[in-house]
Design goal:
Elements: H1 2-17, H2 25-83, E1 119-121, E2 124-139, E3 166-170, E4 175-184, E5 187-196, E6 215-225, E7 228-236, E8 271-279, E9 285-292, H3 310-313, E10 331-342, E11 345-362, E12 371-389, E13 392-402, E14 415-422, E15 425-432, E16 434-447, E17 450-461, E18 464-467, E19 478-481, E20 491-508, E21 512-527, E22 538-550
Antiparallel strand pairs: 1-2, 2-3, 2-4, 2-22, 4-5, 5-6, 6-7, 7-8, 8-9, 9-10, 10-11, 11-12, 12-13, 13-16, 14-15, 16-17, 17-20, 18-19, 20-21, 21-22
Length: 552
């Protein structure tokens, strides 16, 4: 209102100035008085305008200060959120650490927009995934095992294969997956299926069309209700070390960053049919028991049976060529995991125990009835990974067993069969083989798009050999595992060192990512028996280069 009044006075002043000078004397006197009033009002208006300009300048300074403060608070909040300790759900939630298959399944720092490939039906989400892969691999020896390394059969340099190199291009490791998840009442349900093309190929698969055979990697269903969790299907054994919690997703499991589908020497793992029950007393702890598919395993040509029982034992123990092994009981594995954070750095620790059995049934020499014999074995697995600084972590795992060689990539036997004297004849009983393995690794997210991994691992299988009392020869041969004149495949120790590099060229949470994944490894093996003049060990260098487009 004061502004309008001043504008009115200003307008009147202009009108007065426009009055002709021929006015009467008393009018002139009145005009002089009004002019003085107007001048006074104009002075006041100038002062008011000056005050307003000062106020506007102050307000602009305050606005700029508030804007800067808001930016600083936003940056501080983002940094605090990034470094804040994270409570890890020890069930199935993926940690912020890259997984062994992180190259195949990268994770965004914040929740991305819903993938255009996702589909929701009712309250159930259907999310396809996987990656398209083209891999080239090279070896300094002609191993002949395809893209997966048969560590236990590296050829010696005094053989033709040991003096030949090999190279191959393949897309076999490409994967397709489907995750189905939903909440039904108090139950959180998750189903997962994953396949690749590393099945049993035809002998002529590389001649004209590379028609590789699909195979099942994972197929399981998980239900969480409160603090309890139940899983059934095929997935990683609980002897496979986790990166976080006790979950079954590959991103929660430590299998290195290798391209090699047989992963790395020193790991203990299988992917087997199983049923597990887990209790989560808190977000940090998980306790559970799993029943997993067994297999009485004696290795591929590594164990020699007693002469008198050779024919009977061939159908009872798996030499990597038998799918009908008559196992006695499932393998039982108990596992405990612990996850926490210190100053925003993730720490995971776990321990697992194995209970396994071997059983045979034979007719002893000199007897007329079947005699069953069984042996119970076991093992222990322990692992940990620690984020020493942001995005850099150390990982370590170890496994020792009496009868658990199958879990060490099948590189050694679970058991041998020992002949014993029975009256005037002979009987035979199972005898377990001691084995152990370990791996230590370092992984670092050097840049947002560059991930490196360095690993060293080894596996050891103890000798379990004896004289074959049942042999008709005058000079009784040594049988079992690792004795005199034992097969070349009876390995005492196998070691591998690896460097991995994953470079992400482009990534979009809605459309996937393009990556180059490389691996260079040195592998050496030493058998128990080395013939005169033969090399004491075999060694090989191998390299993988994989170009991958990862589905969102």
């Amino acid at each position: 209102m004061n502004g309008l009044k001043r504008l009115g006075i200003f307008f009147v002043a202009l009108c007065l100035l426009a009055v002709p000078s021929t006015v009467k004397a008393d009018d002139t006197k009145s005009a002089g008085t009004d002019a003085a009033t107007i001048a006074s009002e104009l002075a006041k208006m100038r002062e008011a305008l000056a005050d307003q300009q000062k106020q506007i300048a102050l307000q602009q300074q305050e606005i700029e200060a508030l804007r800067r403060q808001a930016i600083e608070q936003k940056n501080a909040s983002a940094k605090s959120e990034e470094q804040a300790p994270r409570m890890i759900d020890a069930a199935m939630h993926t940690s912020s650490n890259p997984a062994p298959e992180a190259a195949a399944q990268p994770q965004a720092a914040e929740k991305p927009k819903e993938s255009p490939l996702s589909l929701r039906i009712g309250s159930t989400d259907f999310t396809p995934g996987g990656f398209v892969d083209l891999t080239a691999f090279f070896r300094t020896a002609a191993l002949g095992s395809g893209i997966g390394t048969n560590y236990g059969a590296v050829p010696y340099n005094n053989t033709i294969a040991g003096n030949m190199s090999e190279v191959r291009l393949t897309s076999q490791t490409s994967r397709l997956s489907m995750k189905v998840a939903g909440k039904y009442g108090a139950n959180d349900m998750t189903g997962y299926f994953e396949m690749d093309f590393l099945g049993n190929d035809a002998a002529n698969v590389y001649v004209v069309t590379n028609s590789h055979t699909p195979r099942v990697r994972h197929f399981w269903m998980d239900m969480k209700r409160g603090k309890w969790e139940i899983l059934g299907g095929q997935t990683w054994s609980w002897l496979t070390p986790n990166r976080v919690g006790s979950g079954a997703m590959s991103t929660d499991v430590f299998t290195t960053l290798n391209v090699d589908p047989l992963f790395h020497v020193g790991l203990s793992l299988t992917r087997a049919a199983q049923f597990r029950v887990v209790y989560h007393p808190s977000e940090k702890f998980a306790f559970g028991v799993a029943v997993e598919n067994p297999d009485q395993y004696v290795g591929a040509g590594e164990v020699i049976y007693p002469f008198a029982f050779n024919a009977a034992l061939g159908s009872q123990l798996d030499a990597a060529n038998l799918t009908t092994t008559p196992n006695m009981t499932p393998d039982i594995i108990a596992k405990t995991t612990y996850d926490t954070s210190f100053s925003g750095r993730h720490v995971h620790a776990e321990v697992a125990g194995l209970l396994t059995t071997v059983k045979i049934k034979i007719i002893p020499v000199g007897a007329f009835t079947w005699a069953p014999h069984s042996k119970m074995g076991g093992g222990i697995e322990a692992a940990a990974n620690v984020e020493i600084v942001k995005n850099y972590r150390v990982l370590v795992n170890g496994f020792y067993s009496d009868g658990g060689g199958r879990y060490l990539l099948g590189l050694g036997p679970d058991a041998v069969i020992r002949p014993v004297v029975l009256g005037a004849g002979f009987d035979a009983i199972p005898s377990l083989v001691h084995s152990g393995a370990g791996l230590v690794g370092f992984e670092g997210q050097v840049t947002p798009k560059t991930l490196v991994g360095v690993y060293y691992g080894g596996a050891y299988f103890q000798r379990n050999a004896f004289i074959d009392l049942t042999s008709p020869l005058v000079i009784k041969p040594t049988i079992g595992f690792g004795g005199q004149n034992s097969p070349n495949a009876a390995n005492r120790a196998i070691q591998e060192g690896t460097f991995d590099l994953t470079q992400t060229f482009w990534k979009n949470p809605q459309y996937g990512a393009l990556q180059l994944v490389t691996q260079v490894s040195y592998v050496t093996r030493a058998p128990w028996y080395v013939p005169a003049g033969a090399p004491k060990n075999a060694h090989m260098v191998e390299a993988y280069t994989s170009l991958r487009y990862i589905l969102p």
